[in-house]
UniProtKB/TrEMBL annotation:
Protein name, as recorded: VOC family protein
Record SUPFAM superfamilies: Glyoxalase/Bleomycin resistance protein/Dihydroxybiphenyl dioxygenase
Domain of life of the native organism: Bacteria
Domain VOC, first and last residues per copy: 5-129
Record InterPro entries: Glyas_Bleomycin-R_OHBP_Dase, Glyas_Fos-R_dOase_dom, VOC_core
Length: 129
């Protein structure tokens, strides 16, 4: 069977620059690529530093249907799962950058977990392992 991997996922955003600022400054992600494709469209990719998984394509919403999906890409459920080897430090980083914590840290069978929101309200699990 052919080998496969998930290369990236798209998150619908309102504005490229505000999304870049949130992901790089508040979450500490790296800006992998920011390439203009036209006067209004860019190919913007971010990812956690030292990451081994998929990158995130920041896709600027166009039209009413895409704008309605901003912040609610999964109908209110947790959308993305971010693993860290230093849960306490990353939790403190989120707090220091005023990232909204939806569910405070708790210990689960699979590790420490908390739920936070990105700048648009998409929910993320932060998991310490």
């Amino acid at each position: 069977m052919a080998q496969q991997h998930l290369a990236q996922i798209a998150i619908v955003v309102r504005d490229y620059d505000e999304a870049i600022a949130f992901y790089t400054q508040k979450l500490g992600f790296a800006l992998i690529e920011d390439t203009p494709l036209s006067d209004t469209k860019r190919w913007v990719v971010v990812a956690p530093h030292q990451q081994k998984g998929a990158h995130i394509l920041l896709a600027k919403a166009v039209g009413a249907e895409q704008h309605s999906a901003i912040g609610n890409q999964t109908g209110g459920r947790v959308f993305l799962f971010l693993h860290t080897n230093d849960f306490d430090a990353y939790h403190q980083q989120l707090v220091q950058h005023n990232v909204t914590i939806v569910r405070e840290p708790s210990q689960q069978a699979y590790g420490q977990v908390l739920v936070f929101e990105d700048l648009y309200g998409n929910k993320w699990d932060l998991i310490g392992n």
